[in-house]
Write a structure and sequence with these properties.
By secondary structure, this protein is α/β, with parallel strands linked by helices. It has nine helices and seven strands; from the N terminus they run αβαβαβαβαβαβαααβ. Helix 2 crosses helix 9, helix 4 runs parallel beside helix 5 (about 110-140) and helix 5 (about 110-140) runs parallel beside helix 6 (about 160-180). The N and C termini lie far apart (about 35 Å).
């Protein structure tokens, strides 16, 4: 064996930007990356939430940086990117966790809610990939992990905007992976099933919804935040250097059944 497994699966000192990282999956991913020694930079639209999260990390002995950013606005994204590059001189990893969901019957679906979901989930991911990608191209190196969903593969009633937005994330990931492979940039996505975030916990309080979700997962259990963090760390590590344009379903077998 002519390789070091600890080094292959390590992310120490990697400058890592994570969107939507003040809570939910993004926060858990940030915690995992920081605990492994990555230089973590939190991005979120709420500065108040960012401050709370940064303080929580500090109490754990973890140092992270943070930037209030509206990822749906190009000027906001570019300004943040410029500040990060000025401070760190590079960016090794971009993890796009920011996302929103709105459910409503298709015939009544609110047009403004459609725009909101598409702006955050699709446009926001595209803008951050584009802005950080420019610097990764100059570096001839980088890893990008976007967050999709099983809804990007399988539609469902009332998911008129969310499901198409995640389908778009899948194709954005594949397109960028194809275009940027020559620059040694890996672009992949993680597609969870129902994960125990605060948002999903509220949805799963409904017995009908909970029973339906559990019936769809062969493992008979719900996704935990740690599973998303583990998959992300793997895709960000050297061990995943030959994985590109892949949608990794972390779903307990949802899409297999």
């Amino acid at each position: 064996m002519n390789y070091n497994l600890s080094e292959m699966f390590g992310v120490k000192d990697e400058v890592t930007v994570i969107t939507g990282s003040a809570n939910g999956i993004g926060k858990e991913v940030a915690l995992s990356m920081a605990s492994l020694g990555a230089k973590v930079i939190l991005i979120d639209i709420s500065n108040d939430n960012l401050n709370i999260t940064v303080n929580e990390f500090m109490k754990l002995g973890l140092t992270v940086d943070s930037y209030e950013t509206d990822i749906t606005k190009k000027d906001s994204v570019v300004a943040t990117v410029n500040q990060i590059i000025e401070k760190y001189n590079k960016v090794d990893i971009l993890i796009n966790c920011a996302g929103v969901c709105y459910l409503e019957d298709a015939v009544d679906f609110d047009e403004k809610k459609w725009d909101w979901v598409m702006d955050v989930n699709v446009k926001g991911t595209m803008l951050t990939c584009q802005a950080f990608g420019k610097h990764m191209i100059k570096q001839q190196k980088g890893k990008i992990v976007n967050f999709s969903s099983v809804r990007g593969l399988q539609g469902r009633a009332k998911y008129l905007a969310y499901a198409p937005s995640k389908g778009a994330i899948n194709m954005l990931t594949k397109s960028l992976a194809t275009e940027w492979a020559k620059y040694n940039i890996n672009v992949n996505a993680i597609a969870p099933a129902f994960t125990l975030t605060d948002l999903n916990k509220n949805m799963l309080k409904d017995d009908e919804t909970y029973n339906w979700v559990i019936s769809r997962i062969p493992t008979g259990s719900l996704g935990e935040l740690k599973y998303m963090a583990g998959a992300t760390v793997f895709l960000c590590s050297k061990a995943a250097e030959f994985i590109n344009g892949h949608i990794l379903y972390v779903d307990g077998g949802w899409t297999a059944s």
